[in-house]
Amino acid sequence: MNPTIVETVNVVRDVAWLPWAVQYFFLIGLSYGAFVVSLPGIVWRRSGWIGISRVALLVALICGLSAPVALLADLHQPGRSYHFYLHFTPSSWMSWGSFFIPVYVGALMLYAWLAWRPLLAQQALQGGLSPRLAWLCRLLGGSGSQSRGALLVAAALAFVGASLVALYTGMEVMAVRAIPLWHTPLLPLLFVVTALAGGIGLTLLLQRLAGPPSADDTARLSRALALTQGAALVIGVVWLLLGFSGLSPIHAQALAQLAPSAAWKVAGLWAAGSTALTLWLALRHPGSGLLIGLLAVHSAWLMRWTILIGGQQVPKTGAGFYPYQLPLGFDGLLGIVGTAGLWVFLFIAITTLLPLTRLTRKAA
Amino acid sequence: MKIDPISPADLLASSSRRAFLRGIPVVTVGAVSLPAAALAAPSGAHWGMLVDVRKCIGCQACTIACINENDVPEGSFRTIVSTYSVKQNDQAGQPAGTYVLPRLCNHCDNPPCVPVCPVGATFKRADGLVLVDGDRCVGCGYCVLACPYDARFINHQTGKADKCTFCGHRLEAGLLPACVETCVGGARIFGDLNDPKGELRLRMNAASEQLKVLKPELGTKPNVYYIGLDERFQGKVEGQGALWQSKTQGV
């Protein structure tokens, strides 16, 4: 028996999670990844990490504030978002997430405010701001004294929130048994590792934006980035081994579904190649901060796009793949551009009060 | 001539299209003498469907009837007859045959779409129907992704999750689902799985050796059963993708 089956009539399902969802997973990942990078300098006061951690905190805050907007926009009934809080459903990871997000973002804002109070006070005095902005800086900075206890409490709360967000975003996708590509315990790990890489990458980019960064700072971040890339490659190899060996039926099923697709092969090679290149550059040329930063951010986004949108293109019952072309409107390109625009707006708003140069200034 | 009236409950339980048509003259006489309450679904009913693939001719009358009955937007489907061209490569000269497979929500007893819903909008009713509370649904699409049968979609007119309801509104009026009523070949048999004397159960018992469900390995316990279901089509079909796509896909 060697039948050849051609599907002549069947339904084509649209993607249910739009590019907005990719933006959410990308931004919230970068946020909690960068939050982790903010800890050594701000909480543990590790020498050499102060400037890095302040910039990382900026990344965490901007991404953390823009991510929920993307998530809200992904709902087809955004006006009903309050239903999440009226009808808590413990069996749903998404329902839990609706509570974890405000915990994380709220704690992150508090943590950032407490960490930046001395800088805001300095900026009010020395920043050469307009009277209104100086007033706002004085208001936010107060006396400029830092409450170490409050900062640690806020950081701990934000850490718990970040951990819960990392957990739920991974589990929410992994819980979908109907999509074998998603239903793997390796996926939450891959989300976390690439989120850390993206957070480090964007920190590297913003550091460069503040001016030529110190070689030590770039080297530190390069080493951290190399660790994440190595971990990502290990996870990828384990995934492939489980799939090819047949030790894990769900991995084998996912591999069997994707292997016939040339597009998936290209995506896999691209992801592996860019990760390996980032690793090599981070180890051999740790000074190439701008390039490895861009590569890391690109990999974090591409991984989420490929898994979330690509996973929805695999029919659950029908043959072949569902076609997908990025729409140019609000449910496609405009969503991506819109979240990028919101990110830029928040970046401008925050750095108007607290310029990057002040964040990276070592003596500050 | 004495006519034994049959109750609407019996009618629902023995409900292939032909049986339904045979019963029309009788129920017409009987219905006028029945109180309205008697039209309600029998208590303890557990609705299910049997699809006899051998009788399906792939005419898509069920697809169209469902669209008309439920105002399904263009490009979306609550039910469809998946159609495949199947060629045996080792039998040279034999033309490819056609295999048809009606698909719809399986109204599973263990539905993966229900626990993932973040607001409890998707639920399973006591009579077996898996439904969406349109007033509560936020259109997050999580249930669409969780359904292993691709039976759900986001309705672009309402912004909510949409799916087959077994025509619950028609059941409440003592009618058959639109797809069953319109099926030309009598391939869809609908009824109460708990009724041992109903046609659904009788047909299922008679064909118990051949009964199959889609993706049984997932443990979803579907309430849509098939006779004549080729195992190559029981899960994800291995073959070339759809040649035909809906108009909204821009093809």
Short description:
Chain A has 13 helices and one strand, in the order βααααααααααααα. Chain A is mainly alpha-helical. Chain A starts with a strand and ends with a helix.
Range of strand content of chain B: 15-25%
Radius of gyration of chain B (CA) equals 19 Å
Q: What is CATH's topology name of one domain in chain B?
A: Alpha-Beta Plaits
**What is the second-level CATH architecture of one domain in chain B?**
2-Layer Sandwich
Q: Write down the secondary-structure element order of chain B.
A: HHEHEEHEEHEEHHEHE
Helical amount of chain B = 10-25%
Mean pLDDT of chain B: 85
Low-confidence stretches of chain B: 1-14, 26-40
- Low confidence ranges of chain A: none
Structural class of chain B: alpha+beta
**Oligomeric state:** heterodimer
Whole-number average pLDDT of chain A?
Answer: 94
Based on DSSP secondary structure assignment, what is the total number of beta strands of chain A?
1
**Helix and strand element order of chain A:** EHHHHHHHHHHHHH
The rounded distance between the terminal residues' Cα atoms of chain A is 76 Å
Q: Judging from the principal axes of the Cα atoms, what is the shape of chain A?
A: globular
Rg of chain A, Å, rounded: 22 Å
Largest interface: A-B, 51 and 65 residues
Strand order of the largest sheet of chain B: 8-1-9
Quickly count the domains of chain A.
2
| Secondary structure tally, helices of chain A | 13
Provide an overview of this structure:
The complex is a heterodimer of chains A (364) and B (251). Chain A has helices spanning 19-42, 50-74, 83-86, 93-126, 131-141, 148-174, 186-209, 215-245, 249-258, 262-284, 289-312, 333-353, 356-360; one strand spanning 3-9. In chain A, helix 1 (19-42) packs across helix 7 (186-209). Helices cover 72% and strands 2% of the residues of chain A. Chain A contains 13 helices and one strand, in the order E-H-H-H-H-H-H-H-H-H-H-H-H-H. By secondary structure, chain A is mainly alpha-helical. Chain B has a domain at 8-71 and 81-88 and 97-111 and 166-233: 2-Layer Sandwich (Alpha-Beta Plaits). Chain B is globular. The model of chain B is unreliable at 1-14 and 26-40 (pLDDT under 50). The chains are: A mainly alpha (364), B alpha+beta (251). Chains A and B meet through strand 1, helix 3 and helix 4 of A and strand 2, strand 3, helix 4 and helix 5 of B.
